[in-house]
Amino acid sequence: MLKEIDGVRQDDPTLRRRWFQDDYFDLFVWQSADAAIVAFQLCYDIASRERVLSWRKASGFSHNRIDSGEATPKRNMSPILVADGILPVDEVLPRFVRHARDIDRAVGSFIAGRLREYAGEPGARGGSGR
What is the DSSP string of 78-101? Predict the structure, then answer.
């Protein structure tokens, strides 16, 4: 189950950054002063083949794989995002809903709504981001 991590560094004084984590997901959420969600990154399958769905209010969705760099300690590069096709929403959405039961209901509902929107479900645009 996702749990919120306390003490997350806040780089932008106009936004609140939150981090939720479990053994399958990392969820990073950026909220404005009125608690509206303006961006998120949902990392999934973090122990195996980590990928990330990013969403920004201003620009929409992107889906990437996380390339963790070289396996050798002599030349280990920083992780980077590389293009990775389409999010397997039929797998990720129900799992997210199960794992998000214990987090802030507004955050969980908003992310689930964006996942439905990504999948093209009619009426999925609902949710205020608060």
Answer: PPEEEE-----HHHHHHHHHHHTT
Structure tokens at 113: 């709504």
Rounded to whole angstroms, the Cα distance separating 28 from 40 reads 5
Residue 120 burial (10 A CB sphere; 0-12, 13-18, 19+): exposed
Task: Say whether 74 sits in a helix, a strand or coil.
Answer: helix
Domain ranges of the chain: 3-119
- What is the per-residue pLDDT across 21-67, written as a single tens digit (0 to 9) for each? 999 999 999 999 999 999 999 999 999 889 999 999 999 999 998 77
pTM: 0.86
Query: What length does the chain have?
Result: 130
CA distances from 130 to 5, 9, 60, 67, 85 (A): 19, 21, 18, 32, 29
State the first-to-last Cα distance of the chain, in angstroms, to the nearest integer.
Answer: 21
State the Cα–Cα distance between residues 83 and 93, nearest whole angstrom: 20
